[in-house]
């Protein structure tokens, strides 16, 4: 009880003023929680404000087409979050008549919602005492109690959830959950935690045993895969290009990209234009130049994309149907958005 009371007291003195803290509307809480998964508050805040302005209700989000949602999400990454958000908004409208489910067991059935998000919504909006466990909570609990179980192991996930559940204040679960998350984000930080002014310092195992830098423990990461991307940026005389939607379940599903030739290593111009894929794609005479001499390395969670953009100038091309002046209306990966920004800057 001392742990819970101390955290809540700290939170009431130090909590961040954030727009989703001023509401108990589950739609807004849901938006904020999905956006802040794997995203810092500073980055997610502008997206939250843009989304709630454009889609003020779940009905507005459900009515939008997926391409519009993905375009607004552009730059936040992990695009499956946006697709699941859109899918579940339609489910809430069609199956629940726009009424957000009000219990943990119902909320977790929505696509894209796991234990953490369901717990956050259920506790904050409906006062259900179900504990949240995110990266901040893992860090606070592992340090305070000196727990060395890896947080990304099945045993660790169960252990920390049970511990958090045993500590929650049943009378104000939403406040407790927000308190422990904010405490981890602002005070018990990954690097340089504020131990000297910590209200829990007199009973923190990690501080006592000098384990702050060792905790929490994570099992070894999955090996990062290297991929080599060559984007072919078509420019015709009548100012058109090719953009196509990525299909399937891989990265960037539903986003648009230039024609892509993936290789097993970085290649030069001669190797590119003599490749079967290039010859099949561009049988007519073309002029090709490399836009970026230095490869762009775009890092995703389990893969690094070593990328070159090639400008392919061609008189006319039947497959080039996208006008260059409309290109910014398409949802594209941030890697391509950054390229377009540089291309536009270079052209001006």
TrEMBL record:
UniProt keywords, alphabetically: 4Fe-4S, DNA damage, DNA repair, Glycosidase, Hydrolase, Iron, Iron-sulfur, Metal-binding
Q: Which Gene3D superfamilies match?
A: Helix-hairpin-Helix base-excision DNA repair enzymes (C-terminal), Hypothetical protein, domain 2, Nucleoside Triphosphate Pyrophosphohydrolase
Write the Enzyme Commission number(s) for this entry.
Answer: 3.2.2.31
- Source domain of life is Bacteria
Q: Which cofactor does it need?
A: [4Fe-4S] cluster
UniProt remark on cofactor binding:
Binds 1 [4Fe-4S] cluster.
Origin species:
Polaribacter marinus
Residues crossing the lipid bilayer are none
| Domain HhH-GPD: residue ranges | 35-186
Instruction: Provide one Gene Ontology biological process annotation.
Output: base-excision repair
- Name under which the protein is recorded: Adenine DNA glycosylase
Say which enzyme class the record assigns.
Answer: hydrolase
What this protein catalyses is: Hydrolyzes free adenine bases from 7,8-dihydro-8-oxoguanine:adenine mismatched double-stranded DNA, leaving an apurinic site
What protein family does this chain belong to? Belongs to the Nth/MutY family.
The reply to whether Protein transport figures as a keyword in the UniProt entry is no
The function of this protein is: Adenine glycosylase active on G-A mispairs. MutY also corrects error-prone DNA synthesis past GO lesions which are due to the oxidatively damaged form of guanine: 7,8-dihydro-8-oxoguanine (8-oxo-dGTP).
Which PANTHER family does the annotation name?
Answer: ADENINE DNA GLYCOSYLASE
Give an example GO molecular function. Answer: adenine/guanine mispair binding
